[in-house]
Amino acid sequence: MKKKVTKAIIPAAGFGTRMLPFTKAVPKELTPLVDKPVLQYVVEEAVSSGIEDIMIIISSGKEAVIRHFESAPELEMRLLESGKDKILSAVRASNSPARIEYIYQPQLNGLGGAIRLAENFAAGEPVAVLLGDTVLDSSAARPVTGQLIDVYEKYGSSVIALEQVDAEKVSSYGIADAELLAGNIFKLHDLMEKPSPEDAPGDLAVASRYLFTPGIFSALQKTTCGLHNEIQLTDAIRLLLKTENVFGCQVSGKRFDLGTPDGFIAANVEFAMRCPELRSKLMPRLRNILNH
Predict the structure, then answer these.
(1) pLDDT, tens digit, for every residue of 16-25?
(2) Is residue 290 a part of any domain in this protein?
(3) 3-state DSSP call for residue 39?
(4) 1 within a domain of the structure (yes/no)
(5) Which one, of 158, 213, 166, lies nearest residue 186 by Cα?
(6) CA separation for the pair 123, 105 (Å, rounded)
(7) How far is 150 from 155, CA to CA, in rounded Å?
(8) Coil, strand or helix: which one is 74?
(9) What are the b/e assignments for 260-272, b being 16+ CB within 10 Å?
(10) Which of 98, 118, 132, 175 has CA atoms 20 to 30 A from the CA of 51?
(11) Does residue 291 fall inside a structural domain?
């Protein structure tokens, strides 16, 4: 009998080197997307998908992540007394209804190394993995993590979120060698990490969201250091493929990677344009910039 998916792991321990020097003092996962940090969007996606327990993996110096999700009684009281109800509601929204716990990754040895630390948390149950610096804005009624849960409930196997990318961009992603089963569901045969356009098996890229059976932890324990002397999650998934089926789901949603300056700026402009009040204020400024 398949177990219900109620747990999620959010790796958030990396240095954020692509956003230095900003990330020297501020965790990249707290990079703002208009008025909320990226990590809050990720947690909200998990909760909206039915996740009840979350493990956030952090590293030394990222204690601000913990503080963000804690209640702030003094701040809330000051906002209440000042009649700033809208801001108060926004602050309280950061107090997630999910149970959040944290574990430190003492040695930054890759995404696979981070996820391996959460084996006891998963406790033999299926678990979602959401990268903490990437927002997936669903164009469907169901959040992206929820879409993966739906596939898991149908097939009972690990599922990886996939998105179609331009051929010239495949060298920036993990690319799936996959066979279409039906609709947007694929059966994975292999994964290639950042292949050249000539070597890529297709144009379906891994899209920062995963749902794993407990078998992923056995695979991670067997995975040795690979690229950059790190434990690569891609290598573990390839090992997992030798013992069980892994599916891909071409998700309905748009990915926003806020881990790069251009991704950060583009995401903020797009999200700001969705807010009528901000749009009316920004459009004249943007036109003025473009005209110069």
Answers:
(1) 888 889 888 8
(2) no
(3) helix
(4) no
(5) 158
(6) 19
(7) 9
(8) helix
(9) eeebbeebbeebb
(10) 175
(11) no
Q: Note down the domain range covering 213.
A: 7-281
Cα distance between residue 207 and residue 257, in whole Å = 10
What CA–CA distance (Å, rounded) separates 86 from 89?
A: 5
φ/ψ of residue 169, rounded to 5: -105, 0
Distance, CA of 257 to CA of 276 (rounded, Å): 24
Tokens of 152: 């898991």
Residue 30 near residue 21 (C-beta atoms within 8 A): no
Q: What is the CATH number of the domain that holds 111?
A: 3.90.550.10
User: Beta strand pairing status for 246-250 and 53-58?
Assistant: unpaired
Name the pTM for this structure: 0.92
Residue that the structure tokens 């990330």 belong to: 23
Indicate whether 161 belongs to any domain.
yes
pLDDT tens by residue, the chain, 292 residues: 567 899 999 999 988 888 889 888 899 999 999 999 999 999 999 999 999 999 999 998 899 999 999 888 899 899 998 989 899 898 888 888 889 999 999 888 889 999 999 999 999 999 999 999 999 998 767 999 999 999 999 999 999 999 999 888 888 888 899 999 989 999 999 998 888 888 888 889 999 999 999 999 999 999 987 667 788 999 999 999 999 999 999 999 889 988 889 999 999 999 999 999 999 999 999 889 888 7
Closest of 35, 57, 69 to residue 111, by C-alpha? 57
Do the Cβ atoms of 147 and 249 come closer than 8 Å? yes
Partners of 179 in the β-ladder: 187
* DSSP code of residue 43: H
